[in-house]
Amino acid sequence: MAMDLTTFWDETATVPPALTQEFIQQAEQQLGVRLPADLLALLRQQNGGYTRGFVYPMTRPTSWATTHVPFDELFGLLPSDTGATSILDSGYLTQEGGVPEKQVLLSGDGHWFITLDYRHGSEPRVAWIDTEMDEDVPVADSFPAFLAGLIDRDDLPDDED
Fold it and tell me: Within 10 A of 143 (CB to CB), how many other CB atoms are there?
């Protein structure tokens, strides 16, 4: 089932500056990749911030949990003067934070990240990268597949929070 984009974002969150087509072009040039259309659709609706509170079910355990990875936030495409973590921080964190090359960071806390993984070509997969635990785990074959697989955090069994 496709993700309902109209209910993706946390309604109580502060809304960041709107995303412009010009900034998308600049960002893709800076990152050296073409961003997935579904990602850009979400960022046009709201340019990053807290989601409604999702997890992605995993068949392989990670440092986060045995059954899922979190997706509580989606970074926006924001200029550096906003002070918020941005998808554009991917280059810096790749160089300084131990993130493998060809990753575009979507969410994370500085130790772990959900990324668009471009190591296999121009159509990215989604990966879980934990730099402290040296984990590099495939999550989904594409960003649309990742979105389709997200579930509400509240739908996890009680012992899996």
Answer: 21
Rounded distance between C-alpha atoms, residue 36 and residue 20, angstroms: 16
151 pLDDT more than 50: yes
Rounded CA-CA distance 100/107 in Å is 15
Nearest residue to 34 via CA among 104, 122, 117: 122
* Both structure tokens of 74: 């989606």
Question: Would you state the CATH architecture of domain 19-154?
Answer: 3-Layer(aba) Sandwich (3.40)
pLDDT at 16: 83
Res. 21 pLDDT band, cuts 50 70 90: very high
- What are the domain boundaries of the chain? 19-154
Q: What is the C-alpha separation between 139 and 154, in angstroms, rounded?
A: 20
Secondary structure of residue 87 in the 3-state scheme: helix
Looking at residue 93, its amino acid is L
**Angle in degrees, CA 152, 158, 51, rounded to 5:** 25
The sheet that has 49-57: what strands, in order across it?
Answer: 68-74, 49-57, 151-152
Half-sphere exposure of 10 toward its Cβ, with a 13 Å CA cutoff? 17
Residue 2 has pLDDT above 60, yes or no: no
Write down the mean pLDDT value for the chain: 90
